[in-house]
Specification:
elongated, 26 strands, eight-stranded antiparallel sheet, disordered N terminus, mainly beta, 6 helices, Jelly Rolls, 36% strand, 443 residues
């Protein structure tokens, strides 16, 4: 076994638990620890441009030439207000926010900062505000929460998890503060000076709270009101397996495994459509039908992992009656489909056929799947006529099927108002895989 891999894996585990670097100071400033890359090279502003508080989805959607013009036009402002002094990144309290050229998905971030009285700053995650940094002694901002300290997700809604830091951990002015951030999906963990200030809270989309934060976006260093200095800005991109493990963790009490990883004990339906390989249910080519749990459920939450081939198509049978097509006779078929289905197959689909959708009734958001060939983690919650789908840490569907009156191709869905039924998988000929399936009944 590679010794360096073992050491790095152990170090990553330590970091995840403690929220601290293995050494507070690098042997040389701005030199990243193993597995991390430096966002700031200690010498100049290479790798950065300037943006303000603006929806990253809008400028990322610009034609390439228009985005490049916006990018290049920002550099004069950046060089006016940002500088490098003895290996420290310095802002004078004005100007555009320093913004990485590169966009990031799931990541682990370290940053050291030192600021002055009355200054106000923050770290934008995927271009969205923000991990708050401010003067915790400024009485004029106590009504806004400054007295609670830095390290919270200040732009979350009042009372929402993460808005206020769990503890006050700011160091006195003149001392360096150490920030550690982990982001997977829409969930954020923050430690300030080794104390946890945010524990897995969802970062709300400041620009449109009806939408989740983007899957990818830049890191931004916000500033206004006073000088702030930065150093040791390090980032590590997190792979899908690690991200999903962090999101799922250990299933809470109340969840029961409904698939033993060996055979189909406790399942019914056309079981010859599938086989069990490496503790996963693998759908067979050119086989169709719905397999389902022997048990029935009313309100429930199911946790599972799935993997798709290119163009893969399957579905989750929700409150299935045990016969017929679950998309119409069950409460719904919660679609399982390659997000790039059109490119893979050449066929066009209705938005209500996309992954996570209540098939033919309500469309889910697209673009949050892991790449084809990697496992995805999904949690589906069904209460009454409502269904919520959280995939890879981002809610892609949250709807009430009760009022739905318009259906794809005008096909009726007589089962949508069912109050109980089986859970299962509705296969459509493709070798889609499922594993680690646990269900909790809800009141």
């Amino acid at each position: 076994m590679n010794y360096r891999v073992v050491v790095c894996s152990f170090a990553a585990a330590v970091l995840a638990v403690t929220g601290c670097r293995t050494t507070e100071e690098s042997a040389a400033p701005n030199v990243p620890p193993p597995g991390f890359a430096a966002l700031f090279n200690g010498a100049d502003l290479t790798g950065w441009w300037g943006a303000s508080t603006e929806d990253p989805r809008k400028y990322e959607a610009l034609p390439a030439a228009d985005f490049q013009a916006k990018h290049d036009a920002s550099l004069a402002d950046i060089h006016q207000h940002w500088s490098v002094n003895q290996g420290e990144l310095v802002n004078d309290g004005q100007g555009l926010f320093l913004t990485t050229d590169k966009n990031y998905g799931d990541f682990e971030l370290y940053a050291d900062y030192k600021t002055v009285p009355l200054a106000d700053s923050g770290i934008y995650l995927r271009g969205c505000p923000q991990v708050q940094i401010w003067d915790s002694t400024e009485q004029d901002k106590f009504a806004l929460g400054a007295d609670k300290g830095s390290g919270g997700l200040w732009n979350n809604s009042p009372g929402a998890p993460g808005k206020d830091p769990l503890v006050k951990a700011d160091k006195p002015f003149g001392q360096w503060n150490h920030v550690h951030v982990i982001m997977t999906g829409s969930h954020v963990w923050v430690w300030l000076n080794g104390k946890q200030t945010v524990n897995g809270a969802v970062l709300e989309n400041y620009y449109d709270r009806k939408l989740p934060v983007p899957k990818y976006g830049p890191i931004q260093l916000q500033t206004h009101g006073g000088e702030i200095r930065w150093r040791n800005l390090f980032i590590r991109e997190i792979g899908s397996d690690e991200a999903d493990q962090r999101l799922r963790g250990t299933d809470p009490a109340g969840y029961q495994s409904v698939f033993n990883g060996r055979d189909f004990t406790g399942w019914a339906g056309p079981l010859d459509c599938c086989r069990v390989t490496n503790s996963a249910i693998v759908w067979q080519l050119k086989k169709g039908g719905t397999i389902y749990t022997a048990a029935e459920y009313t309100n429930f939450s199911v946790r599972l992992e799935f993997k798709l081939p290119p163009g893969g198509n399957n579905g989750l049978a929700i409150r299935y009656p045990g016969h017929g097509d679950t998309a119409y006779l069950g409460m719904c078929e919660c679609q399982v489909l390659d997000d790039n289905y059109e490119q893979a197959t050449g066929d066009k689909i209705d938005p209500r056929q996309a992954h996570g959708s209540a098939y033919g009734m309500v469309a889910a958001l697209r673009g949050y799947q892991h790449p084809i060939g990697e496992w995805n983690y999904e949690e589906v919650t069904v209460v009454g006529s409502k269904i919520k789908v959280d995939m890879n840490g981002t809610v892609i569907l949250d709807c009430d099927l009760g009022p739905v009156k318009t259906f794809l191709h005008d096909y009726a869905h007589p089962g949508k108002d069912r109050t109980s039924g089986h859970f299962g998988f509705a296969g459509h000929n493709d070798p889609v895989m499922f594993r680690n399936i646990s269900i909790q009944s809800l009141p």
